[in-house]
Recover the amino acids of this structure.
């Protein structure tokens, strides 16, 4: 499981939930005795109109799970650079299995492409990375994880609403508090969806009257496609395209904050690596390992990936793998300057903070805010502003 944290759509759910509680008595949002916290959840569930006996049965088996907390704190895989991360995740076996599953569920993908406009490669890539095409869907008790993360005071607003969504699924007969398992962050099924997303976007793809994301590939794939559409996926449009960049250009224009048409990028020396431009859409040049490394043009649909997962490296790898499953060649890794270790990255982040830059968490991960801060300080120092931190930059600071 490769979540850095649940997607931003959960926060929206949390905000909406907060508005609907009205003048209900304030309940502890996190921390304190775990048993008392569960008691507060039960009281809130009753205030929301759930039957008291049903609430008691739903929470009867819940336990605090230290393994969930350990997994939440342990996400060092996201310190890897894009090339290393992509090579680790994209094996020939995963490619072969993706091709085979594309053929096996061809009619399902045809329905998805017609109804939601989501290319099969996109869903196959998520299916591969999230659960190895359903082979390993996570062995964490889902309710225990959700309640544990709600009790933990790091991000309770993300997880607390999901507890009550799980209760709704239980009342519908589609959730077993004692036996439903999934990822450590509470996602369930082959494409790993949170309970609230299942309620909002679940699709009965196989026509059996239930949305069974753990056992039915048609249900999982159709539900994933509907969720992507809900998150803003633009039908039948590309997401990324590999490009070649010139040896010199205004590197400060790279990154997701700047969009131009492919024709405008071409005037700056940018070229598609193979064939023609996919579309005449606003797009950004992204160079995950700086100006000497791999390069891609990111179209509007690429931004939707961040609603599914907030790790830049994961998102780019999933987006690239989707193109690979649809026939794109292996990307050109180039010859990027060596990056920083996790500890070096933390040192750089602390030095950037000291200079007044917002890097988000000082966690050793080159996330979106850290990339923006690196690019800004490179401009300040008169360096090529390609947002790639190196030992030379660290020494300059």
């Amino acid at each position: 499981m490769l979540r850095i944290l649940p997607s931003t759509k959960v926060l929206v759910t949390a905000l909406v939930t907060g508005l609907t509680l009205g003048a209900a008595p304030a309940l502890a949002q996190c921390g304190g005795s775990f048993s008392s916290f569960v008691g507060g959840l039960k009281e809130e569930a009753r205030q929301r109109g759930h039957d008291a006996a049903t609430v008691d049965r739903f929470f009867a088996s819940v336990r605090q799970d230290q393994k969930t907390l350990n997994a939440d704190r342990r996400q060092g895989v996201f310190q890897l650079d894009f090339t290393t991360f992509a090579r680790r995740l994209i094996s020939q076996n995963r490619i072969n299995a993706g091709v085979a599953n594309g053929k096996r569920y061809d009619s399902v993908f045809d329905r998805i492409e017609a109804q939601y406009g989501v290319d099969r490669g996109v869903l196959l890539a998520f299916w591969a990375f999230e659960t190895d095409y359903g082979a390993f869907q996570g062995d964490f008790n889902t309710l225990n994880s959700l309640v544990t993360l709600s009790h933990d005071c790091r991000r309770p607003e993300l997880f607390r609403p999901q507890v009550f969504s799980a209760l709704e699924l239980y009342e519908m007969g589609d959730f077993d508090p004692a036996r439903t398992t999934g990822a450590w962050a509470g996602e369930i099924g082959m494409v790993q969806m949170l309970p609230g997303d299942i309620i909002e976007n679940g699709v009965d793809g196989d026509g059996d009257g239930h949305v069974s994301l753990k056992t039915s590939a048609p249900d999982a794939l159709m539900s994933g496609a509907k969720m992507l559409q809900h998150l803003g996926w633009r039908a039948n449009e590309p997401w990324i395209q590999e490009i070649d960049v010139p040896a010199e250009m205004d590197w400060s224009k790279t990154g997701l904050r700047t969009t131009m048409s492919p024709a405008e990028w071409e005037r700056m020396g940018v070229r598609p690596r193979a064939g023609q431009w996919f579309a005449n859409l606003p797009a950004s040049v992204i160079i995950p390992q700086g100006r000497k490394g791999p390069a891609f043009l990111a179209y509007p649909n690429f931004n939707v990936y961040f609603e599914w997962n907030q790790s830049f490296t994961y998102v780019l790898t999933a987006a690239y793998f989707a193109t690979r499953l649809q026939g794109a060649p292996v990307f050109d890794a180039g010859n990027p300057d060596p990056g920083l270790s996790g500890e070096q990255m933390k040192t750089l982040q602390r030095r950037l903070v000291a200079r007044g830059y917002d890097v988000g968490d000082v966690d050793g991960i080159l996330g979106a805010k850290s990339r923006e801060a690196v690019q800004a300080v490179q401009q300040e120092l008169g360096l090529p502003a390609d947002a790639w931190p190196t030992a030379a930059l660290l020494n300059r600071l």
User: Anything to note?
Assistant: The chain is about 50% helix and 5% strand. Strands lie at 140-141, 181-182, 240-244, 271-272, 284-286, 296-298. Residues 156-171 form the longest helix (16 residues).
